[in-house]
Amino acid sequence: MSDISQNAALLLAYHARTKHRFDAYAEGPGQLDWDAQPAPFRHYPGAPVLELPLAADRFEQCYGQLQKTPEIEIPPDLASLGALLELSFGISAWKSWGPSRWALRCNPSSGNLHPVEAWVLSAGLPGIADGLHHYDPEQHALEGRAQRPAEGGRWLAVGLSSAMWREAWKYGERAFRYCQLDVGHAIAALSYAAALLGWQVEALAVPGAMLAHCLGLDRADDFPPSRYAFTDAEEPEILLAIRAPGLGNLPADLPDWLAGADWQGQPTRIDPAPGYRWPAVDQAAAASRMPPPAQMLRSPAKKAQNPNFPDLPPHPTPAGAAQIIRQRRSGQRFDPKCTLDKAAFYRMLDATLPRPLAPFTAQEAAPAIDLLLFVLRVDGLPSGLYLLPRTPAGAAELPGELGTSDERFAGRCPVADVDPDCPPHLGLILLAALGLPEVQRLARALSCHQDIAATSAFSLGMLGDFSAIADDGYAYRALLREAGLVGQVLYLEAEAAGVRGTGIGCFFDDPVHQAFGLAGERWQSVYHFTVGTPVIDLRIETGPPYPQRHPETP
Predict the structure, then answer these.
(1) Pairing state between β 429-433 and 413-414
(2) Average pLDDT, the chain
(3) Contact present, 120 and 158 (Cβ < 8 Å)
(4) Which H/E stretch holds residue 463?
(5) DSSP assignment of 477-536, as one string?
(6) DSSP readout, 93-149?
């Protein structure tokens, strides 16, 4: 068996092993000690620190501008880089309840555990030393990990890694899935922040071992072997080139460019005394890493966008993009007495279609995610089960795969045929009109019995096409990341519509397929999401993101 097929078999087995079932959840810790939670922030004491300006507000534009071709392009400098990182990975607020205090960030994360670490690789940017820098979201600063003499050239890239133990501490073997969803959230957050500046984000195909070397994650002196080394290890994820005025391409051989750099700082510990270890997480990571080609390449030729979709109509909200990005939250409870306007519902779905705009221009591979919807409380639409095909294969094949032997699906029809307000290009299909109590029961039961899936206006399951994984283990990462990217679209669209979204990582995988009459292993549910009117817990206090500092005025 080839390495490719061995990795594919391991990843498919990992995905099957980590499914939740009605009779058993995936393997995880039996209990949690919240006083011993892994450190949410990593620092590099001894590295030079460059404080970034809190300058995002000086670049504020209407939220709807994010889904258009940029009208202006901001030159890269210390202020614009600070805005980019602030609105993608920075803290958006501090929350407190009694003695407990925790940070929220602009990029969503499963359980608010934030495994994703961000890195800046740059040359020729004013005020920033050439080399590698770790982004510290707690202080909104860059820690200079590897600095080298300037030799001409001007370029900028952002690398992402995952401290997987932060997720594994709570979620056990399913943690690798959640880390990849969070990487997708982070890619989308970076893409939206870049769009505000008139910039674009492009994924680069960099082998896992090369990326680990370029981010300093393979340095034995910084990450020495030990019994608990797995808690401090970071998994190299992706390198993203920033395309902006005056910036060129990265060096063809990045490791050579970093050779001889002055490395500084030592990483702080994430968890010195873990109670468990989950080898399946490390095995999935190893099997899904990008293999080493001869040199660093551009992103794959497959395009992740469809230029044939019509432009999104102007968004009705007057709110600014930075405001929407900062106010994004995960709803904890929804009001079942509230409904969602049909036009807002269609708009949210339309925004998930892969157009050649942010955040889909940052996607690595062809679209592989379609949406199964539980419509509950959308004005003017019957409650029931729906399908939104986002991919060519989904549009061509899924309608014939879903519920063919279930009489509940006998009345299926394109929504545009019965509702003139439904944009025809959506391709939205009503699979089965069901009474609200039945849809509530299904949505709640299939999302691990969570009320948020049933008290909302609608919830959904993201269905991934697993056919590409047999030829490329890295496709498993790309598929899960696409789900996280779509989740970030829904998060921001919900906020712009005056409601709120919540990602749901806990769901019963195969029962979801069975509920929609889907057989076989090709399509798998990988992420759930729900949108509704939030019930705000007034006991929780909200504070500013950086109380020790004051934002710069425009």
Answers:
(1) antiparallel
(2) 93
(3) yes
(4) strand 458-465
(5) HHHHHHHHHHHHHHHHHHHHTTSEEEEE---BHHHHHHHTT--SSSEEEEEEEEEE-B--
(6) EEEEETTEEEEEESS--GGG---EEEEEEEES-TTS-SEEEEEETTTTEEEEEEE--
pTM of the predicted model as reported, rounded to 2 decimal places:
0.96
Residue 64: what pLDDT?
87
Is residue 157 classed as helix, strand or coil in its secondary structure? strand
Let me know the angle formed at the C-alpha of 486 by 232 and 505, rounded to the nearest 5 degrees: 55
Alpha carbon distances (Å) from 258 to 120, 163, 203 = 13, 23, 20
CA geometry: angle at 360 spanning 358 and 364, to 5°? 135
Out of 171-175, 269-273, 374-378, pick the least confident: 269-273
First-to-last C-alpha distance (Å) of the chain: 60
536 is written with which tokens? 């705000």
Read off the pLDDT of residues 162-207 as tens digits, 9 standing for 90 and up: 999 999 999 999 999 999 999 999 999 999 999 999 999 999 999 9
Q: What is the DSSP letter of 552?
A: P
CB 302 within 8 A of CB 367: no
Domains 46-287 and 333-532 equal at CATH topology level: yes
Radius of gyration, alpha carbons of the chain: 23
User: Under CATH, to which class is 46-287 assigned?
Assistant: alpha beta
Residues 6+ apart with CB under 8 A from 31: none
Q: What is the 3-state secondary structure of 381-404? A: CCCEEEEECCCHHHHHHHHHHCCC
Report pLDDT for 298: 45
Domain at 333-532, CATH class: alpha beta
The structural domains of the chain, with segments of one domain joined by +, span 46-287, 333-532
